[in-house]
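INFO batch 0412 | record 1 of 1 | parsing
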Amino acid sequence: MSTNNGGKTRNLWPWAIAGGLALAVGINLTMVWIAVENRSPLVPGDIEQDALDYDQAIARKRATTALGWRVTLGPCRIAPDGACEVVLEVVDRDGRGIDGLHGTIVARRADDPRFDREAEIHELGVGRYGGTLQSSARGLHALSIALEHGDEKWSDTRELWVEGSASP
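INFO prediction complete | emitting tokens
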């Protein structure tokens, strides 16, 4: 791309490159302007509240650790009605069973919230507690276990494999 003006040759390619770069800068500046003017709706919740919730979760974890309780989750036993019966063994730091606890078990499935279940924990004997998760679906469940004994509160998570039916 050159023209001949009285023996002089003029190349237009530097102008084409400069024009292309100017166009790219203009498009990028337009995209930045659109991003700044239209805040993302994908940022959920309140960041300050999330930070407070996190601090509270850390405090609960420290309180749970300070109690020194050891909680062991037994396997799921499928009842004739398809429910999953779970047993917890709870001992103190000296290995003695703790009696008089009450609490809840919440089972969640990451793949389908229709299979989420909650159960009250009842005492089976000193240091032994049970709960029944109704209509549990086959698969891996994340359990949130919360136990209370007066002012003492224990909470933690466990995983449980359920050999149940797949009906919600």
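INFO post-check: The first strand starts at residue 2 and ends at 5.
INFO record closed
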